[in-house]
């Protein structure tokens, strides 16, 4: 992917320095990161196939009714041993400010966040637009959780992007026999198993 040119605008560069100055003073175990990911049935089923060099035959691509299904995953990750390494929820393929607010409330109710935690999000409009424009004050005033936004165009500073990479890589290695037995929404079920199995050590590797 090409790096957007405006990533290096002077004001964005200064925001990057401010962000790093804040983050380096905080205990990493109290920093938690969040983001969303679109999950597609074809991530699981659309196995790339090549022509057999001897026979010239192209094997069929395995698909099922889940092939065209799409889902949305809202997730948060952390290395704090007092909470799970990954909190997630797989829901309908829609993301908006209201939906994100609902998912965040569910994560707060589950105890994933503790007073004194820092939640880091990117600057997507669903995080700070609409009714979420007051999220920063609400989070800190009600739960004692400080909200910090990433600099513009800086997904490389968000460890949960690496968590999503782990998810996709493992989805592509799910045995065909398991997919056949899972039936409808197999991609979502496989994602649940994978995300539940991610350890604190794996998330810490994503942080590093």
Short structural summary:
The protein is α/β, with parallel strands linked by helices.
Describe it:
By secondary structure, the chain is α/β, with parallel strands linked by helices. A hairpin with an 8-residue loop joins strand 2 and strand 3. Helix 6 packs across helix 9 and helix 7 packs across helix 8.
Shape: globular
Rg (CA only): 19 Å
Number of strands: 5
Note the main sheet: 5 strands, mixed
Beta content comes to 15-25%
State the distance separating the first and last CA atoms.
22 Å
Task: Count helical runs.
Answer: 9
- What would the average pLDDT be, to the nearest integer? 87
Helix content bin: 40-55%
Detail the poorly predicted runs. none
Structural class: alpha/beta
The H-and-E topology, N to C, reads as HEHEEHEHHEHHHH
The side-by-side strand order for the widest beta sheet comes to 3-2-1-4-5
How is the topology of this model organized?
Layout: H1 10-23, E1 31-40, H2 41-45, E2 70-77, E3 86-92, H3 97-109, E4 118-121, H4 125-128, H5 135-143, E5 146-149, H6 160-171, H7 176-182, H8 186-197, H9 200-207
Parallel strand pairs: 1-4, 4-5
Antiparallel strand pairs: 1-2, 2-3
Helix pairs in contact: 6-9, 7-8
Tags for this model:
alpha/beta; globular; five-stranded mixed beta sheet; 208 residues
């Amino acid at each position: 992917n090409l790096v957007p040119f405006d990533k290096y605008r002077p004001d964005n560069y200064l925001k990057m320095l401010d962000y790093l100055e804040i983050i380096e003073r905080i205990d990493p175990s109290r920093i938690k990161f969040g983001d969303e990911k679109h999950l597609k049935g074809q991530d699981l089923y659309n196995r790339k196939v090549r022509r057999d060099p001897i026979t010239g035959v192209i094997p069929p691509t395995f698909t099922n009714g889940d092939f065209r299904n799409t889902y949305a995953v809202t997730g948060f990750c952390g290395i704090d041993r007092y909470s799970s390494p990954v909190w997630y929820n797989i829901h309908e393929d829609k993301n908006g400010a209201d939906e994100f607010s609902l998912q965040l409330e569910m994560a707060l109710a589950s105890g994933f966040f503790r007073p004194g935690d820092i939640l880091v999000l990117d600057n997507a409009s669903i995080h700070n637009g609409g009714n979420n424009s007051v999220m920063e004050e609400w989070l800190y005033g009600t739960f004692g959780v400080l909200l910090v936004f990433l600099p513009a165009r800086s997904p490389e500073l968000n460890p949960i992007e690496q968590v999503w990479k782990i998810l996709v890589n493992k989805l592509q290695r799910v045995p065909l026999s398991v997919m056949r037995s899972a039936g409808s929404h197999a991609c979502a079920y496989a994602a649940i198993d994978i995300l539940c199995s991610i350890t604190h050590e794996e998330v810490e590797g994503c942080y590093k």
